[in-house]
Amino acid sequence: MTNATARGELLEALRLSRGLTQTQVAQVTGISQAALSKVESGDADLDAEKWDRIADLMGVPVSAFSSVRSSAAPARIFHRKLKSTPKGAVNKVAAELALVRLRVRDLMGEQRTTLRAHDLEDGFVTPQEVARAVRDELSLGMEPITDLVGILEDAGTLVLRWPLETIQVDAIASWQDGEVPVILIGEHVPADRQRFTMAHELGHAVMHDTEASAEQEKEADAFAAEFLAPASAIRKEWPTPVTLDALIPLKRRWGISLAALIRRGLDADLLTEAEYRNWNIQLSTTGMHRREPEPTARENPTALHSAIRKSLDGGASVENLASRAFMYPREFELTFLQESS
Questions:
Q1: 106 pLDDT exceeds 70?
Q2: CB-based contacts of 149-154 (< 8 A; 24+ apart in sequence)
Q3: How many Å apart are CA 253 and CA 191, to the nearest integer?
Q4: Which of 60, 6, 10 has its CA nearest to residue 327?
Q5: How confident is the model at residue 85, as a pLDDT?
Q6: Stated pTM of the model
Q7: What is the largest CA-CA distance in the chain?
Q8: Among 51, 52, 34, residue whose Cα is nearest residue 43
Q9: Within 18-147, where are the H helices?
Q10: Distance CA 55, CA 144 (A)
């Protein structure tokens, strides 16, 4: 990759992550939109004074554009979003994800993943079969997953909690060829829904190689349900009679929401369609669909934070690490050094 291409991709990612158009950047910096377009495509460069203007607007050290060597190009992404999420919002978070990949690559060092892709060929392999295969590959057996974030991080996946609520996205994931999977989970996502959302994104990563279609969303949901709570195990533990008091311990044991557990009951032929509808009505009328009884404890990512702390303990300064991440120290601290809660 040429320096001009790397600079152009970094500029585009920064611009999109700030929610700016080329025209808006041109108006503020006095650099023509045509020139900016050529710079972002790697076909032109700017003089030092113009790069200073760009850096000021983007809020990054100007050294970022001279030191960047790796790609910040958008990867194939999968996102668990609301139907009303505008395309511009998805582009913004995709750019943020590209920047995360670029910044973390240097902070974390050489990374590898034990996950592998599983092709869904002509319907002969179901999402449920893939989920069971991934469980086997991760040596999870048929027991509940007590720490999904830890399992994903141990498998070489970068997981970060990220401010996604304003763009109406629950999570976004990427798996660039030759790199490790990256999953950003919205900070606003309740703990009960977070685990299913992470498993959903894992399903996309191992099964799909394009932006998720409606059918692929269903496949990722089916993967997540089987991955978190295998139907064969749920059948063995399903209570009789099916009461709220009996379902709560099962929800707690498998770490899924009541709504997800009830859906597992339907999928495993343990509930009829009528019983499933009645349970959903009960969750809705009692408010439990919004506020779960005995909510699941939140799982927080630790791998990146630990790597940064290890660098700091080894003598690196925040200023040095921030520079390597193409950021000012204050933004670096706010982004990567705040303790999760």
A1: yes
A2: 149/198, 149/299, 149/300, 149/301, 149/302, 150/299, 150/302, 152/183, 152/198, 152/202, 153/301, 153/302, 153/303
A3: 14
A4: 60
A5: 65
A6: 0.88
A7: 74
A8: 34
A9: 22-29, 33-40, 48-58, 63-67, 87-108, 127-137
A10: 48
Q: How would you classify the pairing of strands 158-162 and 182-186?
A: parallel
Q: Which run of H or E residues covers position 158?
A: strand 158-162
pLDDT tens digits for range 227-248: 999 999 999 999 999 999 999 9
Do β-strands 158-162 and 169-174 pair in parallel, antiparallel, or remain unpaired?
unpaired
> CA 118 to CA 208: how far, in whole Å?
8
Compute the distance between CA of residue 130 and CA of residue 126 in angstroms, rounded to an integer.
6
d(CA 328, CA 341): 24
First to last CA, the chain: 39
User: For residue 292, which of 324, 267, 319, 261 has the smallest C-alpha distance?
Assistant: 261
Q: Considering Cα of 162, then 163, then 168, then 174, what sign does the dihedral take?
A: negative
Sort strands 182-186 and 77-81 into parallel, antiparallel or unpaired.
unpaired
